[in-house]
Amino acid sequence: MEIGLIIIFWYGALHAFGADHLTAIADFSIGRSVKKTLLVTLTFAFGHGLMLFLFAKLLHEYGVMESLSGYGDVISSSVIIAIGLYLLYMALTDRIQINKHMHNDGEHVHIYFGKSHSHGEGSSVATSALGMGALMGIGGVRGMLATLGMIEGNILDWTMILAFVAGVSLVFVSFGVVILYLNKNLLTNLTNVRRVFATAGVVSVAVGTNMLIA
User: What's the whole-model pTM score?
Assistant: First the structure.
């Protein structure tokens, strides 16, 4: 079983390197604080891993992989495109704002959507990341079934789910550190903020569209 967990862990890490996953993490993490970026990466990883495992097991048990996993790819691609279009809309309609203020002898930069800034959005961001991660988890079913086939018995339990989430989280958190560096050194004025969000939107639409037509 230990070998199976190692396989699942490394599959999760390799799976997380997909352009769609890194794009989603970037979309959710741009402009966020360290705490919120960590929250986003971990909740996205958990939702993604849980849904992917459960859906893969369901398809494996009932033998309907090909018919349903195709829809999973469409759902995953559509999620990325929808996020990209939303970011583009917010950037092009000047709905992304930046607020700077001094706090504990240091300058803090807050980036938010809409006309007012709220400090209580952490739970909503985490919920959104969890939901998006779950939806995108359906798209990776084929690879998960292949990985489960390498494990004797194909028994799904919570240790396998946690091993997969750990592998995914390793990559997501590492990528989140890169985003945090960009947040601190690039997103220092409103012009840069809107350009970065618009770029993220274009990349998201391009990645999602490529997934659909590939």
Answer: 0.73
